[in-house]
Design a protein that fits this description.
It is built from eight helices and eleven strands. With 284 residues, it is α/β, with parallel strands linked by helices. It has an eight-stranded mixed β-barrel. A hairpin with a 5-residue loop joins strand 3 and strand 4. Helix 1 crosses helix 2 and helix 3 packs parallel to helix 5. The chain binds ligand C2E and magnesium ion (3 copies). This is Diguanylate cyclase (GGDEF)-like protein.
């Protein structure tokens, strides 16, 4: 940490300058600049991660996760470039690119046994943007994906705004025939009032409840309670972050059927997933 004398409004002030903060600001700036080009050139793609029906072993759906590798900066984590896109006002553009790429890659899976769905993550500003549902319908039609095969994942904190506005935004999307999942459920502060099946269709239990599930009794109770509540409300439950067979077995005992996580497959390029959801090249 270096100390600088800074002049502000005519008076000398001592400013603490943290080099870590400086480096992060430079990186953020680089990423924002590079992102603009990548969006223009369509250089952001998706990986698919399966959501598995643990009763049948079939792939119930694929979640599309945005991926970007920059020529000089290397692979950039989605949380980082999504933040950059949000702060530079380009999240709408990013979402459209991801939606289009995800739909295009999903088409070969449309006639797969069990009719898997496609889940795409969207941001809070997307769901409030007036033109979003129109664009969404255009993309689905252009790529040939029926709306009822699409699930939009929204995080709980997106539901924090004014109840009326949130209800309207979700209703507009639901009216197009797509389904809504609450992502990272249990980590936000959204009102339970959103958990009606008029509003959402799927609850995704956050992986923080899974990490220590084998030893943490209260995590087990929470998962059991969420499963029971979801059943009463006629909502589906997906549990994310399942990394081991032991976690999967316990989650199944607790009533979780749809499971997602490294135990079933990491996010991989869409073409590596065969239409039955198995890895195209298991030996590779
Ligand atoms: P998310 O939607 O909750 O996605 C799950 C994240 O957990 C992904 O990280 C995935 O790679 C990771 N994951 C999956 N299974 C496991 C597991 O078993 N163990 C562990 N430790 N992690 C697992 P990723 O791809 O880095 O994405 C992070 C977050 O970035 C996503 O969390 C989502 O909130 C956001 N994101 C990703 N793609 C997009 C996008 O296209 N649009 C928007 N708005 N957000 C996106
Ligand atoms: Mg998600
Ligand atoms: Mg999630
Ligand atoms: Mg998550």
């Amino acid at each position: 940490t270096a100390m600088y004398e800074a002049k502000r409004s005519g008076r000398a002030q001592v400013v603490l300058f943290d080099n870590g903060i400086h480096e992060r600001a430079v990186r953020q700036f680089q990423i924002e600049a590079a992102l603009q080009l990548a969006l223009e050139r369509g250089e952001i793609g998706v990986h698919f991660q399966p959501i598995v029906d643990s009763d049948s072993g079939r792939t119930a759906g694929f979640e599309a996760l945005a991926r970007w590798t920059h020529a000089d900066l290397g692979p950039i984590p989605p949380v980082e470039f999504i933040r950059a896109a949000t702060e530079s006002g380009r999240i709408g553009q990013l979402t459209q690119l991801v939606l289009r790429a995800a739909c295009r890659a999903f088409v070969p899976h449309l006639c797969a046994h069990g009719q898997p769905y496609l889940a795409v993550n969207v941001s809070v500003s997307d769901i409030y943007a007036d033109e979003f549902s129109t664009r969404l319908v255009e993309i689905l039609a252009a790529e040939g994906v029926p709306p009822d095969r699409l699930v939009l994942e929204v995080t709980e904190d997106m539901l924090l705004g004014d109840v009326h506005a949130v209800t309207q935004a979700l209703a507009r999307l639901r009216d197009q025939g797509v389904r809504i999942a609450i992502d990272d459920f249990g980590t936000g502060y959204a009102s339970m009032g959103y958990l009606s099946n008029y509003m959402v269709n799927i609850i995704k239990i956050d992986r923080s409840f899974v990490r220590n599930i084998l030893t943490n009794g209260s995590d087990q109770k929470i998962v059991r309670a969420v499963v029971s509540m979801a059943a009463d409300l006629e909502l589906a439950v997906v549990t994310e972050g399942v990394e081991t067979a032991e976690q999967a077995a316990l989650l199944r005992q607790l009533g979780c059927v749809l499971l997602q996580g490294y135990a079933y497959g990491r996010p991989r390029p869409p073409e590596e997933w065969a239409v039955d959801g198995r890895l195209e090249a298991l030996s590779a």
